[in-house]
Structure formats: structure tokens, C-alpha cells
Amino acid sequence: xxxxxxxxxxxxxxxxxxxxxxxxxxxxxxxxxxxxxxxxxxxxxxxxxxxxxxxxxxxxxxxxxxxxxxxxxxxxxxxxxxxxxxxxxxxxxxxxxxxxxxxxxxxxxxxxxxxxxxxxxxxxxxxxxxxxxxxxxxxxxxxxxxxxxxxxxxxxxxxxxxxxxxxxxxxxxxxxxxxxxxxxxxxxxxxxxxxxxxxxxxxxxxxxxxxxxxxxxxxxxxxxxxxxx
Length: 229
Fold this sequence. Notes:
Layout: E1 5-6, E2 15-19, H1 23-35, E3 39-43, H2 46-55, E4 60-64, H3 72-81, E5 88-92, H4 97-105, E6 110-113, H5 118-131, E7 138-141, E8 144-147, E9 152-155, E10 158-161, H6 164-175, E11 181-182, H7 183-190, H8 198-211, E12 217-220, E13 224-227
Parallel strand pairs: 2-3, 2-4, 4-5, 5-6
Antiparallel strand pairs: 1-3, 7-8, 8-9, 9-10, 11-13, 12-13
């Protein structure tokens, strides 16, 4: 396992962990992201990534899928199983829908196919850190309260644990209270457009089950979903 290496950070900079076993690409990303104002930590394999994710407390992680020993999907699953909410952008050379879905189901927040434009990577990183830095820590409707940063909800006196995407979908519905959230908008904002449309329906079903009765999320046939008692 290769030890993670951190650049000298600006105290106010967004912290990014870059994990890739390709030395030239890793060095290029470290130089470029540092020049863009990020505080960069790099790791060359999955084992080092798991250590660095705990030590450096990154705001966002760039994680290569294809690595020896512990691959990116395994790293992602382990981090999520530990409750780490940090947004993760997966890098891969494979562009099949099944590969994108596998990354998203493992807990990744976004997916970028190699080769990629560095400007797109930077834009996606900024979007991920904005999405996970909400200005309102609590959102509520009726007897439902969502703690955005903790990814937990309360309905009445009952505590509800949520996954990252469940919390993001519920947050989107709460912020658009009374307005229709289309499947495409949910796909774009929560899955980065890299998933099949029916994944939204599956997550809505999960949320309904967790939130309990009376139901709050209504399906508008052909349109999308709305939060309404």
C-alpha cells in the first residue's frame, strides 16, 4: 500500500482526495487541481485511499475504478459502509450503462469517463461540493424534518436513517415543495445523468417505505413526483 501524499493547502481551500494508480495521470491531476485552488491529497491504490479518506477529511473524492487489489468500487462501498458522506466522483475507461450503474449503486455521486476534459472534471467537483454544503441544515414539511448534513429525518418522534441519495432526493422534493420534480431533473441533479430513469422510481419507493403513512410523496403519472400531504 502506497502512503497518501498531501499538497500544502490553503486553509480555506476545498479538499480533494485523488485516487488513481496511473502515476502520470495522478501527477497531472494533483498539479492541475492545486493550480485551481484545491487542497489536494493523492493516493495510488485502494488501501491508501481508505486511510487518506479518514485522515484528510476531504470535501470530495476523485476515485479511479480499475485499481489492483482493492478496486474503486470496493473502496466506495467500504467508505459508505462506514457512513462517510463525502461526495465521490468515479473515473473509469468504461462507458457502458451497466458500468455507470455499478458505480452509482456502490455509492458514487458522479461518474466521468476517461479521457475527459479537465474543465469538466473541475466543474463537476465544484457542483458536488456545492450540493453537499447546504445553506439550510434543516428542512421540514408537516411532521417531517430532514437534517441535510446528517442525512437523517424525523417523522413525528420516529428517527429515519437515509442513504446519501435518499437524503438528496428527499431534500430536492422538500426544496421544491408543492412543485413537480421530474425524473430527468432528479437524474441530472442526484445521479449526474448517468443512470436509467427507473432508478428514481426505485428510490421513491424506498423513501415512501421509510417515511411511512400517511404517504407524503405522490406520483404524477407522466410528469414526476411531488411532496404533498
